[in-house]
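Sequence in, structure out. Go.
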Amino acid sequence: MLIDESLNVAEKLNSVSGLECFTLSQVADHGDASDCWIILYDRVYRITDFLDKHPGGKDLLLEYAGKDATFAFRGTGHSEMAIKSLKQFEIGELISQQQIFRKNATISVKDLPE
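Output:
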């Protein structure tokens, strides 16, 4: 199914979460050091201002600029404080048709292997 890139205003906000919704294509438009967005567990984060502060270096983050970084994030074993700090960078979520982790009746985070 093709995703309509011209979402109208009513479709841009998730009625449950109230977050702005983005497509994968829209996130991909923000894929460099001057404008860096990533996706973690179907949520979209603007991390441009965090690049130089990342303990592992900005190059690690830039590998996933404009892309989904969920498995890399999970595989690195981030601390609880790192996970909580994500909230300050959250700007929205993927549209429901493109969600993987938080979509009803699909795989959930708790189902993923450690």
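Check: Strands lie at 21-22, 31-32, 35-40, 43-46, 90-94. The chain has a mean pLDDT of 83.
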